[in-house]
Each structure stands twice: as structure tokens, then as C-alpha cells.
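Supplementary Methods. Inverse-folding protocol.

Structures were first reduced to a C-alpha cell string of length 150. This string, shown here, constituted the complete conditioning input.
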């Protein structure tokens, strides 16, 4: 009887140690929003989690692109970007999961509603809000290269 209980106890303790496999700190990401709606209008962008968390990222002008810094609560949580359009229903992205601490850049192109992901480089910093005009701010990182075939 003790011989059967010992393997079960060992399995339980080893599984408990695997529940928190990712000990790396959560780092901020850059979220780029391309407001290319067919009817040019200013939008306010939010990020929502399936757990009910909601954070305002900021405003994006008509036919404009802006970047925002965002620190996720978890790499495995499902998120959705939402654009509030004045006098209209919200425009929602597809749900997505960040998935890895290597993700550093998320790009939302509103039309055709595509979310793209790029890995971060080890020595890069998050790009701060592109509308800020602070002379002490660091030089923004370059946008991800266009990998589409023409």
C-alpha cells in the first residue's frame, strides 16, 4: 500500500512545480495601431482581457498610425483590442494571446482586421507613445519590416 502511495505523492509534487514554469518577469510590449478605416475618423483604443481587465491605450487620428506601451498581466491570457468610434459601435480585433516573453511588438491593422506579432530583440526597449515630444526620450525602435511578398 505504501509502495503505491509514494509514486502518487511524487507525481503530485512534481506537477505542482511545473504550474509556474515561466519565472521571467513580464516585460512591456509595443502595440502599433493603424487607423486605416474607410471613413476616416479619430478612434480611442482600449485593450481588454477575457477576465474583464480594460486599459485605455490612447487616441489614433484618422488615417494615422500610433504606438503605445502595454504591460500584459500574463502571456497566456486572451486579449482583444477595441477601437471606440464616435457615434458608432466599437470595432473589435480578433482575440489573441501573446504567448511568449519573446513577443515585443504587436501590430493591429484595422482594415482587414489583422493582428501581427514580432519577437523582441534582447537589447531593445519598448517604443513609447509616438505622439510624445519629449527631448529626453530615447530614439524609437524601427517598425517591424514588411515581410509580405509583392
Amino acid at each position: 500500500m505504501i509502495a503505491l502511495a509514494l509514486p502518487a505523492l511524487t507525481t503530485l509534487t512534481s506537477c505542482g512545480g511545473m504550474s509556474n514554469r515561466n519565472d521571467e518577469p513580464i516585460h512591456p510590449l509595443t502595440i502599433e495601431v493603424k487607423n486605416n478605416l474607410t471613413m476616416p475618423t479619430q478612434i480611442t483604443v482600449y485593450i481588454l482581457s477575457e477576465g474583464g481587465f480594460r486599459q485605455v491605450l490612447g487616441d489614433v487620428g484618422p488615417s494615422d498610425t500610433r504606438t503605445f506601451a502595454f504591460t500584459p498581466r500574463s502571456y497566456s491570457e486572451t486579449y482583444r483590442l477595441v477601437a471606440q468610434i464616435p457615434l458608432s459601435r466599437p470595432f473589435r480585433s480578433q482575440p489573441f494571446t501573446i504567448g511568449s516573453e519573446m513577443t515585443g511588438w504587436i501590430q493591429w491593422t484595422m482594415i482587414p482586421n489583422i493582428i501581427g506579432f514580432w519577437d523582441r530583440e534582447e537589447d531593445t526597449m519598448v517604443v513609447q507613445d509616438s505622439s510624445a515630444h519629449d527631448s529626453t526620450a530615447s530614439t524609437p525602435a524601427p517598425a517591424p519590416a514588411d515581410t509580405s511578398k509583392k
